[in-house]
Structure formats: structure tokens, C-alpha cells
Write a structure and sequence with these properties.
Layout: H1 4-30, E1 32-33, E2 42-48, H2 54-66, E3 91-96, E4 101-108, H3 120-129, E5 162-170, H4 181-193, E6 201-206, H5 208-211, H6 213-217, H7 226-239, E7 246-248, H8 260-289, E8 297-298, H9 305-311, H10 313-317
Parallel strand pairs: 2-4, 2-5, 5-6, 6-7
Antiparallel strand pairs: 1-8, 3-4
Helix pairs in contact: 1-8, 2-8, 3-4
Bound molecules: guanosine-5'-triphosphate and magnesium ion.
């Protein structure tokens, strides 16, 4: 017979640990400082299939920092698969905490349409990565942004360019790869077009709650779920990024309050994205400006989540559930 008092104590201890972890991640990210006055913010671009949870991920990052549910980026209310992207225009969202703006901006773009083979959407995403697309541009499924359009920015600044490309992938549907051929081809085109550039690429794998019933009941089972590990492996082979750059998360989608377990996963993913942006910033100045003073620096450099991450889920996946 398990002692209920002992169970209660363990639950309490775990909750405290998660709260501390969350605060540690938040503090580290809030202390991120840009050392180059020419760089106003670090820009991150999210891309992925229609309905994968791109806009919800942006809201989830904002919610984790603000400590309350934020719905700045309009997410689709329908859970069913849509054939057209709910997000149509390029919009940059500044991430802020309860007190101030943080130096991060996440750009939301239209979802990649899985039915039609065309280079148009990948082209526009690549242009957005390089900073050629101005905010407010309404993406078209058929015609890429022409260079004489008012939304075309011929001379992007460093702040207009993306420091990291985040593929947002739905854990719930990625295994249905037969239906994903066009989507996979579009990702391949994007990767090919930016391959010389060396921009960091990561995957945020969403909807883990829908993909695995155990994770749906207890988010901490994400560390041991065979289903989640299998879906991450599919992401790895489809997109071609290493397992260490794939972050399973659950977005806020119908909650009314934030939750430490959800926040920790979101902030871990975002912390790693920032770390990669930071490393990329030094390369970016050579790539675009040849200005030796261009770089960003974390004010707290000490421990990185990267090392932590290598120890948390991977060994435990071997145990299986
Ligand atoms: N259960 C669950 N639902 C989610 C999650 N993330 C997003 N959703 C839901 O999935 C649907 C699509 O989410 P969006 O954020 O609009 O997806 P999107 O990628 O921005 O879609 P488009 O703008 O149409 O390309 C919405 O109904 C969300 O509430 C998640 O992690 N878990
Ligand atoms: Mg959207």
C-alpha cells in the first residue's frame, strides 16, 4: 500500500522543481542582451504545414513569458485539417514579459499547402528568411512576391533577416508520410535554397498531447513516450535535422491558465533557438554586412540548456512506456 502522504510530497516536490526550472529558463532568456546597436532584435521565422500550430507556438512563447494566456497571433479555431492557411500575412510578433519588450521577434507566415506542387511558397519563405519581405505582405499560393512590389525590400537590414528557421511540425500527422509528399518536397526546396547560408534550423514538434494518450494525461511522460520518440525520428528523416534540434512541445490552445509543465517545454525549445541565433549572429554579419562589429551576446553565458537536454529524455526513451 503506497503511503498517500508520500505520494503527495513527491508531487509537491516535482511541482516545485518545474517552477524552479521555468524561472531559471525565463531569467536566462530575459537577460539576453544585444551588444550591437544596429541589431534591434533577433528575428526567428516559423514555417510549416497548414494548421501545424505555428501561430499557437508564438502565442505559447508569449504566454510562458507573460504568465497568462496570450492570443496575439490569430490561431485557427478549427481542429480539423484545413486546406488553406488561416494565417495569410507576414506578421512579426515582439515577445514580451510582464514588464517589457524582450529582444526577440517571431515571424508568422502562411502554412505550406500540402496539395499543390509549386515553388512559389518555398520561394516566398526563403525571401522572408533573407529579409526581402516586408511585414503585412499577403502571401499567395500561386505567385511569389515580385521584386517590384511595394512589399519587396531590396536592402534588408540585419534585423530584417531571420537568425533561425523553425520548422513547426504536427506530431499527430507526420507519420502519415504518404499524404505528406508535397509538403516534404516543399521543405526540401527551402532547405536546398538556404543550404549555402548555414542558417540554423530546428524543429518544434507540436500537438504531442494528441499524438500520445499517455502524454495527453501527463505531459512529463513526453520524456519516456515511445510514440513521441518515433515521431521525432520521422521528423529527423523527413526534414534532415538531428534529434538534438527537435523539440517536442504542447502549445496552449484551449487553456485559460498557464501551466509550468507546458511552459518548461516551450521555454526549453525557445532557449535552444536563442542559443543557435546567438551563434549564428556572428556568422550573419560576415554573410550580409562584412561588418566585424555585428554580433549578439548573452549576458549570462554560463550553463546552456543544450547540455541539460542531452541528459534528459534520451536515456529515458530507452526504457519505453
Ligand atoms: N491539441 C493541440 N492542439 C494544438 C496545438 N497547437 C495548435 N493546436 C491547434 O491546432 C489548430 C491550428 O493551430 P494554428 O496555430 O492556427 O496553426 P498554424 O500552423 O498557424 O496554421 P495556419 O496559419 O493555417 O497555417 C488550432 O485549432 C490550435 O488550437 C497543440 O500543441 N496541441
Ligand atoms: Mg497561423
Amino acid at each position: 500500500m503506497v503511503d498517500p502522504a508520500l505520494v503527495g510530497r513527491n508531487v509537491g516536490r516535482r511541482q516545485t522543481e518545474m517552477k524552479e526550472k521555468k524561472e531559471e529558463l525565463k531569467t536566462r532568456l530575459e537577460n539576453f542582451r544585444l551588444s550591437n546597436p544596429d541589431v534591434k532584435h533577433v528575428r526567428i521565422l516559423v514555417a510549416g504545414q497548414i494548421g501545424a500550430g505555428k501561430s499557437s507556438f508564438i502565442n505559447s512563447v508569449d504566454s510562458a513569458f507573460q504568465g497568462e494566456i496570450v492570443c496575439e497571433a490569430q490561431a485557427d479555431n478549427l481542429q480539423s485539417a484545413a486546406s488553406h492557411s488561416f494565417t495569410k500575412r507576414l506578421t512579426a510578433y515582439r515577445i514580451r514579459n510582464a514588464d517589457a519588450d524582450l529582444p526577440f521577434e517571431i515571424c508568422d507566415v502562411m502554412g505550406l499547402e500540402p496539395q499543390k506542387i509549386s515553388e512559389c511558397q518555398p520561394d516566398d519563405i526563403v525571401k522572408t528568411i533573407y529579409g526581402h519581405v516586408r511585414e503585412g505582405y499577403k502571401f499567395s499560393e500561386d505567385n511569389p512576391l515580385p521584386s517590384d512590389d511595394e512589399h519587396y525590400n531590396e536592402t534588408p537590414s540585419l534585423s530584417d533577416q531571420a537568425f533561425c528557421l523553425v520548422y513547426v511540425i504536427d506530431a499527430n500527422t507526420i507519420h502519415l508520410s504518404a499524404d505528406n509528399k508535397i509538403f516534404i518536397e516543399k521543405l526540401r526546396i527551402i532547405r536546398q535554397k538556404i543550404s549555402d547560408n548555414g542558417i540554423p534550423q530546428v524543429i518544434v514538434m507540436t500537438k504531442v498531447d494528441e499524438a500520445c494518450p499517455l502524454v495527453s494525461k501527463d505531459l512529463r511522460k513526453i520524456y519516456t513516450s515511445k510514440i513521441i520518440k518515433e515521431r521525432m525520428e520521422i521528423c529527423k528523416s523527413i526534414v534532415g535535422v538531428p534529434m538534438t534540434s527537435i523539440f517536442p512541445v504542447k502549445n496552449y490552445h484551449d487553456e485559460i491558465d498557464t501551466d509550468d509543465d507546458v511552459d518548461v517545454l516551450i521555454l526549453k525549445a525557445f532557449d535552444q533557438i536563442q542559443l543557435l541565433c546567438d551563434q549564428d549572429a556572428a556568422v550573419q554579419h560576415v554573410r550580409f554586412f562584412r561588418n566585424p562589429l555585428c554580433f549578439c551576446k548573452r549576458s549570462i553565458q554560463s550553463e546552456s540548456c543544450w547540455e541539460n537536454r542531452n541528459t534528459w529524455p534520451w536515456m529515458m526513451f530507452a526504457i519505453g512506456v
